[in-house]
Amino acid sequence: MKNIPAKIQSVNDALYYARKRVPRGIMNFYEGGSGAGVTARRNEEAFTEIEFLPRAATFNRTKKISTTVLGHEISMPVMLSSVGALRAGHVDGERAATRAAGTAGTIQIVSGVSTTSIEDIMAEATGPVFQQLYFIKDRDMTVRIIERAKAAGVHALVLIADSAAPNPPFEIPPNRRASPPMGVNFKEVMKFAPQLFTKIPWAFDFLRNGLKEPMAELAVEENGEVMKWFDAASQIFDPTPTWEDLKWIREIWDGPIVMKGIVSVESAKRAVDEGVDAIIVSNHGGNMLDTTISSIEALPSIIEAVGDKIEVYMDGGIRRGTDVIKALALGARAVSLGRAYIFPLMAAGESGIDHILTLFRSQINDALGHLGVESIDELDPSILKLPPHWRKSQWSEGLLSNTAQTTN
Ligand SMILES: Cc1cc2nc3c(=O)[nH]c(=O)nc-3n(C[C@H](O)[C@H](O)[C@H](O)COP(=O)(O)O)c2cc1C
Q1: Which of 14, 315, 362, 379 is the most exposed place for a label (fewest CB within 10 A)?
Q2: How far, in Å, is the centroid of ligand 1 from the Cα of 81?
Q3: What does the angle CA 288 – CA 293 – CA 295 come to, to the nearest 5 degrees?
Q4: Is 277 helix (H, G, I), strand (E, B) or coil?
Q5: Residue 207, pLDDT score
Q6: Residue 119 falls inside a structural domain
Q7: Is residue 76 a contact partner of residue 66, using CB atoms and an 8 Å limit?
Q8: Does 404 have pLDDT greater than 50?
Q9: Which of 90, 155, 284, 355 is catalytic?
Q10: pLDDT of residue 407
Q11: Tens of pLDDT along 123-160?
Q12: How many domains does the chain have?
């Protein structure tokens, strides 16, 4: 595994090595998407439809790529998204992400169904940590989760806005179907065993981990018992946070609140009216309602509506530094990575994430060089050519006229 990071030159390479290391039943969960996978694919494809209009014959040796998110300085505009059950794919799971975020000087967003406790994460953290909140089981449990986050020193809560019903399962082709182990018992192990023959390093890690099944470490019962991951995960859709919940959450949480999972202008405006501190334009990586608009296509109209009132970040489909530049040029303050860091984690642990973040950093710097832009603060839509058919989405004529060459 030691020599894997050096072989990773792209997120696709990381996926290749992750598939080699991690059993298929588990990889299916991380790769997925929901339904026909249209939104998950579209998130990536939409970036490829945007073209650059570089400013010729300019040269800047130094570039500024740092920014701030809710007042926290980060060394580049790339954060790590909340992704559940990271320890199922790699024994170091969330902790590897915490350390890698610290090394890169950026923010980690911890999943509401993290397989590492928030206290353990905060003990490793050298930078800001945001915690995504699912309502698990009942309000009492949610209150305990928020109070723990507060006591542990979490810097912001991220409420999920797009998970009001179970996500339709990904329509996996028959030749790639495989189940994850639903627990650690004789029956499950026997069912899972055929997937393990070529995954010895993963199986060894699992043994090293004490053959424990993943637990939802943030979801602790009143008697101190931690919930099993599958039990907690099955309860996150009912109920989910609503605008009305902001009121009682604010009574027990006085830190910043970020709303994640917004793709419509109407919801973005509501977030501003309700006084949330920031929003993440996101469709959950295409893991919720399939055929939802891609995040990058939803972004410009949201920026136009609320970009001067609230910090706006985005995620979904970011696979390379040029994607980051495009999102920033369309108005995002920062982006966050999902699969782009979980595949390297699955392939090579913490060093895999370190490696991909280093790659993103150099790709962002190089793209700025090519574009003739010295600082990410100077990025705007004038460096982009946008696909004409995007006119049919939520775009307004006002923003389009601000954008170069959209009418051919
Ligand atoms: C396997 C998987 C699990 C996820 N789990 C969570 C989660 O627990 N909480 C959450 O807020 N978002 C979750 N997400 C969504 C990510 O935080 C992020 O929005 C998404 O992955 C971004 O899209 P990308 O993977 O194309 O970068 C998950 C995504 C994936 C792929």
Answers
A1: 362
A2: 7
A3: 85
A4: coil
A5: 79
A6: yes
A7: yes
A8: no
A9: 284
A10: 39
A11: 999 999 999 999 998 999 999 999 999 999 999 999 99
A12: 1
